[in-house]
Structures are given as C-alpha cells and as structure tokens.
C-alpha cells in the first residue's frame, strides 16, 4: 500500500510538471511568432520571389557543362578539395589534443586546460575564422583550408575525447600492471580500439566541412560560394539554380559514399 500511495502522490506532481512545461513552451512559441512581421512583404517582393523560383527551376545548363576554371564542375572540385584538405589537417592535429584532454589518460589539471582551449576554438563561428584568415592570406582557397582545419580541430577533438573516455579500461590497467609507459599504452592498448571510430568521425566531419566550405566561399575563401553570391547579387537566378543543382548533386554523392564507408567501419 505504501508504494501505491507514493505513486498516487507522484501523479499530481508529474501532471503539474507537464502543465508547466507546456505553458512555458507555449509562451516561447507565441513570443517567437510575435517577432515575425509581414508589413515588409510587398508586391515587388512577391514578384522577385516568383523570379527566384522560375530561375531555380530553369538552371543555366551551360554553366553545369562548362569544364573551364569558371565552370561549376571545377568550382565544385575546388570546394571539395578545400573541405577534404581542411578535414585531414584538422583530424591529424586533433589527435594529440584529444589525448591531452582525456581525463582517463591525463591528469585532471592538464585535461581541464586543454578542454578549455578546445571550447574557445569551438565557440568562434567558422565564418569569423574565414574573415580573419582572408586578412592574413588574402582571398582564395588557402584561407578556406586554414579555416576548415581550425574548426575541425575543435569539433573532432571533442568527439575523439568522447570515444577515448569510453574505452575498455581493463586493457589499460593490465598494461600498467606490467609496467608499460604512457606512449606504449596509447600505441598498443588504445589506438587499435580507436582507429575505426576515429575514421568514422572524420568522414562525418568531412560532410559538415563540405557544406561549410560553400558558406566560406561567400566571404572570398575559395570554392563555389563566391560565384553563388555574385549571381544572387546580380539577380541571375538561372545561374543560382545551376550552382545549387551542382551542390545538391555533389552533396548527395558524398553523403551516399560516406554513409557506406561509415557503416562498413562501424560493423567491421
């Protein structure tokens, strides 16, 4: 009877918590909707929206099949190269930082300091890094690669640490009992368990970097983003449609291939 009484006492509390949660979410929803204003939507804006839709549905096919340096295939390859190189550099640099910030391997003070550094790196948006590197290196793909590398370090290190801290500690304890050094524990006890998971994380990050590389191109960091913003500013919506079609096809292909590879790595 005591257990039943406790359940009966908890039900009103749960009901009240549900009501309060719904009430708070309703207030947030109404407040968010109140910030939307339709006064600025004019007849001219509706006409422009129609032109955008028509242009997107009728892409400029000459750009898609243009194999010169100004064509979409070349710009897509450049964008993918920026994302790929930035991911590789970031993935390699993130490995030592991840081990230094893993609390089950390093002392807590060192792990805390390195984690704080990684949080600072992740806090700054990629487009801000892009604008800073453009001032240093000038516009072009090199600024995009540096930006992709730095942003990849912050996120990959965090994901690496989560994997490292979930390792089977019995292996490390056995190696420590026989007198193995820290580097030997990492080389023979930790790294064999991490290889497949690390590669899966890197492939996932490459998917994200491919999209971010397009955005970085909008500020002059190379790739297909610059032609996209130029076409939008000039109201050349058929060119915008061609560029977006190329991006969609590229991302679909990369997504399909990366998903297959990640599935094999995790199962293997």
TrEMBL record:
PROSITE patterns: ABC_TM1. InterPro entries: MetI-like, MetI-like_sf, PhnE/PtxC. PANTHER family: ABC TRANSPORTER, PERMEASE PROTEIN CC0363, PUTATIVE-RELATED, PHOSPHONATES TRANSPORT SYSTEM PERMEASE PROTEIN. It is found in: Cell envelope; Cell membrane; Membrane. The lineage of its organism: Bacteria, Bacillati, Bacillota, Bacilli, Bacillales. The chain crosses the membrane at residues 16-38, 72-100, 112-134, 188-206, 213-234, 240-258. It comes from the Bacteria. This is Phosphonate ABC transporter, permease protein PhnE. Residues 76-258 form the ABC transmembrane type-1 domain. It comes from Lysinibacillus xylanilyticus. Keywords: Membrane, Transmembrane, Transmembrane helix, Transport. Signal peptide: none annotated. Belongs to the binding-protein-dependent transport system permease family. It is a multi-pass membrane protein.
């Amino acid at each position: 009877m005591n257990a039943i009484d406790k359940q009966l006492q908890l039900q009103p509390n749960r009901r009240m918590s549900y009501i309060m949660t719904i009430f708070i979410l309703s207030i947030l929803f109404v407040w968010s909707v109140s910030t939307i204003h339709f006064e600025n939507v004019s007849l001219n804006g509706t006409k422009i929206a129609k032109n955008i839709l028509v242009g997107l549905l009728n892409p400029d096919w000459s750009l898609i099949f243009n194999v010169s340096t100004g064509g979409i295939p070349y710009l897509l390859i450049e964008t993918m190269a920026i994302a790929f190189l930035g991911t590789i550099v970031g993935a390699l640099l993130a490995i030592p930082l991840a081990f230094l910030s893993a609390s089950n391997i390093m002392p807590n003070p060192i792990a805390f300091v390195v984690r704080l550094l990684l949080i600072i790196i992740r806090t700054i948006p990629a487009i801000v890094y892009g604008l800073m590197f453009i001032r240093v290196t000038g516009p072009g793909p090199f600024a995009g690669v540096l930006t992709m590398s730095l942003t990849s370090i912050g996120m990959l290190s965090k994901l690496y640490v989560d994997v490292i801290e979930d390792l089977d500690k019995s292996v490390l304890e056995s190696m420590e009992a026989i007198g193995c050094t820290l580097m030997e524990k990492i080389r023979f006890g930790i790294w064999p368990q991490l290889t497949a998971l690390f590669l899966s994380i890197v492939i996932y990050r490459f998917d994200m970097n491919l999209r971010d590389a397009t955005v970085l191109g909008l500020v002059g960091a190379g790739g297909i983003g610059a032609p996209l913003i130029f076409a939008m500013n000039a109201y050349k919506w058929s060119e915008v449609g061609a560029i977006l079609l190329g991006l969609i096809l590229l991302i679909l292909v990369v997504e399909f291939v990366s998903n297959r590879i990640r599935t094999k790595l995790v199962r293997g």
